[in-house]
Design a protein that fits this description.
By secondary structure, the protein is an alpha/beta fold. The protein contains 18 helices and 27 strands. Helix 1 runs parallel beside helix 3. Catalyzes the reversible transfer of the terminal phosphate of ATP to form a long-chain polyphosphate (polyP). Keywords: ATP-binding, Kinase, Magnesium, Metal-binding, Nucleotide-binding, Phosphoprotein, Transferase.
């Protein structure tokens, strides 16, 4: 049972319950076998990021000698750290059991992930050849015994802790040597061995190194060698200095570099490691009993399972969907001309993201286009978006890019893009001091007969071709001059931070998002008290703002019917009599990562509908630049109502939020057909093309 206060679920605990839903996917036999293994990788990757950010934040509160009750939903920080560690140990144990089951089922499919003890003679020859050609020269091996200072371990890198039992010419005395081998990151973690008949064999790089340990330590006269994996996770918070002589890029670069030596927040080890080896490491690393020490399995950095080879077994993976076109939005003609007459919306990955790059490439070449302005939060490693913007500069357009250098874990990638874009002549702006820019907007100004006309798009997700294949997000293309005038004011705010603009259409953080949504909820409360139908439908990633939770509780007590689809953290407790009995909440975790933010308010029969980049989290409402956009086009309004309804009716992958926080799947009524919303969503858009 997860601890709660009377009114809230702790956000860190709720996040761990979200990751438990990811872990459920790796156990679900409706998920193809290789994809189940990849969900284990996602679970592990999520956990790494959790410790780098959330656990590290709570640990900072403890280290500062504070309780943190005011920001942690009433729970003391020290107690919370202990609770987190217990939950994580339990989840890790479950993940190991799930892996054992997946491994068993892979073997039934003639796919064998073998250990070094299972290698045949023919495989041994291949492995040793592979080791000397590709691995040996990449190994970083450190003998620890005689070092006065323990080496700095890299954040989340995996290491083999090696114990070498030495011979000394005597039957009585033995002494041990200890070493660390860093698992090379530049080599595939999974090495596919030669196929034998209809059987596929894979060995992990860790075990390949274990198999060849005798070749690594040939200088020692040893009796035996054993190797067990360890890793640490470091605090990922950026500490930005105030040196006025440095540019913002230099400050972020320096802070990212400093992250490499930040304080450890978690130590994970193979629970089968020898006690003397573990004790040696803990003493050398100054690991205290109060630190988060997690006994794990034989393999760490299981995030690499996300890249498990397909082995040509497409029958064991999800079918790739072919992204659909949007009816009426042609890739052949001019998008600007089409958008001039009507708004259009794409819903990736069901629709092709190519419309976004097509829009920018057309704007880059159009002789009438004078300027392009865009916000960038995360870009693909080889970004067509960046390429189109550079192309626009080369065609004489004025291009302004607001790039967020503090996008978590994408800082280095964005720094490199910032330098590249700046070198190419793009006008870069770095947002507002103290605020991250998380909005997803683009504005194009075009000189036409009537004068300057604006075109643009606004999205709930990043302008990233790679994530658009696996994240679900809405993007609205519009030539609504009122919306785009407001959008231009947002870009003006980046340049003139002291000026607070007023907006007629957009909902903009940090000044208006919370207050606007509060007013919209108040409207529904007034309708409910007047005996009219009142409802709110919300789809978002996370709900952690206690003020917004309290407002929803107030609406529920007034009789407003509230439906919530929250993928990740949800601090609200639905279904509690006298507090939230009119609130239902579910989470959908499936093939794609649910990422849109959609808000629907009944408004006495004339629904107000918005898409937004903002979740209802304190950081999004008060400490970021976020943009929400009203939907005016009647066809798109209906489409958003339909897509919400499809997600809400999910009875296959929907988990129900409750005080129990047990991730229970929504039950189907007897005789009710299964509805898996992500699959139904694709069919819905296919049918729209046929209408």
């Amino acid at each position: 049972m997860v601890k709660t206060t009377n009114e809230y679920i702790n956000r860190e605990i709720s996040w761990l319950q979200f990751n438990a839903r990811v872990l459920q996917e790796s156990k679900d036999h409706r998920v193809p076998l290789i994809d189940r293994l990849r969900f284990l990788g996602i679970f592990s990757n999520n956990l790494d990021e959790f410790f780098k950010v959330r656990y590290a934040t709570v640990k900072r509160i403890v280290d500062a000698g504070k309780t943190g009750k005011s920001v942690l939903g009433g729970e003391k920080a020290k107690d919370l750290l202990e609770e987190i560690t217990k939950i994580v140990i339990d989840q890790q144990a479950r993940s190991l059991e799930i892996f054992k089951q997946i491994d068993k089922e892979l073997r039934q499919e003639n796919i064998f992930i073998i250990r070094e003890t299972e290698v045949s003679e023919s495989q041994a020859e291949f492995i040793r050849d592979y080791f000397f050609k590709k691995v040996n020269q990449e190994l970083m091996t450190i003998i620890l015994n005689d070092l006065t200072e323990f080496p700095l371990l890299k954040d989340t890198a995996a290491y083999l802790a090696v114990k070498v039992v030495m011979k000394n010419g005597s039957t009585k005395g033995r002494h041990n040597r200890y070493a660390l081998i860093e698992i090379p990151k530049g080599i595939d973690r999974f090495i596919v061995l030669p196929k034998e008949g209809d059987k596929d064999y894979v060995i992990m790089l860790d075990d390949l190194i274990r198999f060849c340990l005798d070749s690594v330590f040939t200088m020692f006269d040893f009796e035996s060698i054993s190797a067990h994996m360890i890793k640490i996770t470091r605090d990922a918070e950026l500490d930005i200095d105030n040196d006025l002589s440095k540019s913002f890029i230099e400050k972020i670069s320096s802070s990212v570099e400093h992250r490499k030596i930040s304080d450890p927040v978690r130590f994970v080890y193979d629970k089968s490691i020898d006690k003397d080896t573990l004790q040696f490491l803990k003493e050398k690393m100054d690991i205290m009993d109060t630190d988060s020490v997690i006994p794990g399995g034989r393999y760490h950095n299981r995030r690499d399972y996300m890249g498990f080879p397909s082995l040509g077994r497409h029958d064991l993976m999800y079918d790739k969907i072919e992204p659909l076109p949007v009816k009426g939005l042609s890739m052949k003609g001019s998008l600007l001309d089409i958008i001039a007459h009507k708004d259009y919306m794409i819903y990736a990955p069901y629709h092709t993201f190519s419309y976004v790059t097509k829009f920018l490439r057309e704007a880059a070449l159009d002789p009438q286009v004078r300027s392009i302005k865009i916000t960038i939060y995360r870009l693909a490693s080889d970004s067509q978006i960046a390429s189109a913007l550079v192309n626009a500069v080369k065609n004489g357009k004025q291009v302004t890019v607001q790039i967020e250098l503090q996008a978590r874990f994408d800082e280095q990638n964005n720094i490199e893009y910032a330098n590249h874009l700046q070198d190419e002549g793009v006008n870069l702006i770095f947002g507002v001091p103290g605020l991250k820019v998380h909005s997803k907007i683009c504005l194009v100004e075009r000189e036409e007969v009537e004068g300057i006309k604006r075109y643009g798009f606004i999205s709930t997700g990043n302008f990233n071709e790679s994530t658009a294949k696996i994240y679900t997000d809405y993007t609205l293309f519009t030539a609504h001059q009122g919306i785009l005038k407001d959008m231009n004011k947002v870009f003006g705010f980046f340049e003139t931070n002291y000026k607070i603009n007023k907006y007629k259409h957009l909902i903009v953080s940090p000044h208006y998002t919370k207050s606007t949504f509060m007013k919209l909820i108040d409207n529904e409360i007034a309708f409910a008290k007047a005996g009219k139908e009142a409802y709110i439908k919300i789809k978002m990633n996370s709900l952690t703002s206690y003020k917004m939770v309290d407002k929803l509780y107030e609406a529920s007590r007034a009789g407003v019917k509230i439906q919530m689809i929250v993928r990740g953290i949800c601090c609200l407790i639905p279904g509690v009599e006298g507090m939230s009995e009119n609130i239902e909440a579910i989470s959908v975790v499936d093939k794609f990562l649910e990422h849109p933010r959609l808000f629907i308010f009944g408004n006495d029969g004339d629904a107000k509908i918005y898409i937004s980049s903002a979740d209802w989290m304190t950081r999004n409402l008060d400490f970021r630049v976020e943009v929400g956009c009203p939907i005016y086009d009647p066809d798109i309004r209906q489409e958003l109502l339909d897509t919400f309804d499809i997600s809400w009716r999910d009875n296959s992958k929907a988990r129900v939020f409750s005080a129990k926080q047990d991730n229970a799947y929504r039950k189907r009524a007897k005789g009710q057909p299964e509805l898996r919303s992500q699959f139904e969503m694709y069919d819905y858009y296919k049918r729209k093309l046929e209408d």
